[in-house]
Amino acid sequence: RCMASFGYVSLMLVTFLRPCRGGLVSRSALRPASSSASSVLRRTFVRSRTPAMAAAGGAASTAKSYMDTLAETDKDGRLVRSPSLFRNQISDEPDARFKPATGRYHLYMSYGCPWANRCLAALNLKRLRKAIGVSVVHPTWQLTSPETDEHKGWTFRDPSDPPLIPPSGYGSIAVDDLVPDTVNEAKTVRALYELAAANEKKQGHGNGDAGKKFSVPVLWDKEEGVIVNNESEDILRLFNSKFNEFSEPGPPTPDLYPQHLVDQIQEVNSWVYDHINNGVYKCGFAKSQKAYDEAIDALYVHLDKAEEILSKQRYLCGSTMTEADIRLFMTLVRFDEVHTPSHTYTHTRTHTH
């Protein structure tokens, strides 16, 4: 029922989001379910399949390299994400550093990243493709500076380049849906962070530290050559409210964060983020059986909660689509195709339609 209730959302987002040609999102998973359809949650318990055990086989070797790069766990083996480094806002206040403008900002994203895709969804729903440029990285991680270290991260490729081999060493993934960095001609997202940090230091806004986590999405300011924001929640809301005057002509665009629903949206976001959006990663990046069991139990408790809500109403916060729906959808649409069979090991139950 959860995905059936999202039939309208999936239909709308398919219109705006292209699925990853690398296979991270299947076209069948994006097909809207009929209103009378109901999903069956099939129990296939694999409690003994810890992340460490799973990493010993096949495709999970790729996951292990991702885990090593993203190692952010506490002493009990639980995933603890570091905060986003850039949290600047865009404002039309007279003294604002970053002001709304057309052509000034650029979004760097990956079709394979649910956090980045929520931003792309908002940008497209608000009809901002002519006001804000977009570059799309390759869906697999590659060495970002092989001459200095073994860090793997997001890289840019031109559609005319040959397919890339994933870190697992198996197969190859085409690059024809990618959009290279036309702003800075960077080859990696890491290079963007290092360039931004250097420019911030020159301008007296930072100490030149780019951090160690080079994630997408990135909202870039072409005027100053710096990162405005790399927190998906912030970027989604900036696109929702700060660029309305630059939307392409057409019917009114949706308000994804309406004031009368803010409290309800925040309440839904709190458990969707902690236990579903981030929950699938808590399962995959867990370093202990206890951490894994806690995460997978919480994940399915809250998937059931979402299913219960969506069996009674069209959207999470009632009759209006909000950012809460987009945030949940980006995890749901990847659940069977990405999180279940590969690096996040959420095999306890599988959605079948």
Count the E strands.
8
Rounded average pLDDT: 82
- The largest sheet has its strands arranged as 3-2-6-7
Sheet having the most strands: 4 strands, mixed
Written description of the protein model:
It is built from 13 helices and 8 strands. The protein is α+β, with helices and mostly antiparallel strands and 353 residues long. Helix 9 packs parallel to helix 12.
Per-chain topology:
Elements lengths: L1 H4 L1 H10 L10 H4 L9 E4 L7 H4 L5 H10 L35 E5 L4 H12 L7 E4 L5 E2 L8 E2 L35 H14 L15 E4 L4 E4 L2 H10 L20 H16 L1 H6 L4 H22 L12 H10 L2 H5 L9 E4 L1
Parallel strand pairs: 2-3
Antiparallel strand pairs: 1-8, 2-6, 4-5, 6-7
Notable characteristics:
single chain, 353 residues, alpha+beta, 8 strands, disordered N terminus
Summarize this structure briefly:
With 353 residues, the protein is an alpha+beta fold. It is built from 13 helices and 8 strands. It is 36% helix and 8% strand.
